[in-house]
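S.,

Sequence below, as promised.
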Amino acid sequence: MFFTSIKAQILIIILSMGLVSIVGFGELSVLNDNQHYTVMLCFALNIVLAALLATLLFKRILYPIRQLMHMADDFKDGILHEKLEFNKKDELNTLGRHFIEMTESVELLNKDLIERGKLNHAYGSVVAMLSASNDRAMALSEVLAVINIHLPVFAGAVCLHGLDGKELFLTAEHGMSDDASAQKIFLKYISKELELLGHMMSLKYLSEANFLLDGETKAMLPECVVMFPMFYRQEKLGALVLALDQELSQSQLDFLQKIAGDMAIAVKDISRFEQLEMLNSELEKHREQLQQERDDAVEDSITDGLTQIYNRGYFDLSRKGFVLHARRNYESLSLLLIDIDLFKAVNDTYGHPCGDEVLIRVAQVMKKSLRETDFVARYGGEEFICVLPHANILQARQAADKLRVAIASECFDEMDGKSITISIGLSALRDDDLDVQTMLERADKALYRAKETGRNCVVCDEDMSEL
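The prediction came back faster than expected:
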């Protein structure tokens, strides 16, 4: 072993050169004609030994050192695949091999860092997908697609428990068969494995898993099938199951473990969102129901139950606004007070149901004949009141005559085809009117005059002032 080291080889050559020199100098001191050949031979032998020493120094020291320097420059530039070959066992060989081992270790670390960088980038994409979507199946399917791109995975599935926490469902899949019976067998197997796993948050290799691949991948046999259980705190939500082309590195397993945990959090968040949406929907329905009930109650409070037009109470609440609005906008305003002629005789002759039908029909004709902006209400008994915004005395008279003719043309089967008539008292807003009450009083007097003058007519308060 000693003679295999470079220092021993150099020492042997130097000692040999010294020995040859001693011999040559010894012969030179007693040189005669017959011994000069021995001196020349020693000189030549020293030259050969010197050349051998130079060759040894170059091949065993200078050349390897130059290679190490070249490799060090490559290492500095990030080139790690360059390798040196050392066939001798000496100090430079040991140094070179240690240097090669160092570069190989650095290269492995660099590859691991690159892989982790890619996985971290993919993990960021997965987190963004899970955070952005409220659709459980879509989000989990997108995550499976990302896993398929960055890892040697050719099929995968996410299985989640139902609301009861017992039955397992196939929520998302990639590369699996769509056969229902096969999926049922697969889910039963995964459910059993999850049950055996308990509450441990770790992966499990499924040596006997029938992964139920689809038509494109069923010919491929997975190197292994791995299951990552999905737990939210102590709640078992399901599992991430993957069929792999090859076994995964530790960084890849860590990546999948984090994704399984984030999936569990996202699934829980989406479940809470869905529950909140359901509660909001129920609350909205309840609110709409309450609003409808309130609207119905308000409608009932302002509507006459028989004729389905406004009642006197709503008229009393609204009467101040009519004059204020007309004064503010410098508009005309008129009022009609209507009474059905001989209505008591109708009740006495044909009965109160017939009288109710007459009231209903009169209200319907009034709504149809007047404008949508006109206010129509039952004032009491057989009396009705109409407020006509934007209508002066002439326009109000025309509207009243139109209404009177329309009602007179109505025939009632309940009265053997007979018709009825109405009397109308009309008043218009004057400058000295403070509210509708004064208009109403004048219209009442005009209505009384219409009754006295033969009924089935329209009398205006201005007509009375001329008398």
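The beta strands are 153-161, 168-174, 204-205, 224-232, 235-244, 333-340, 375-380, 383-389, 422-428, 458-460.

Coffee later?
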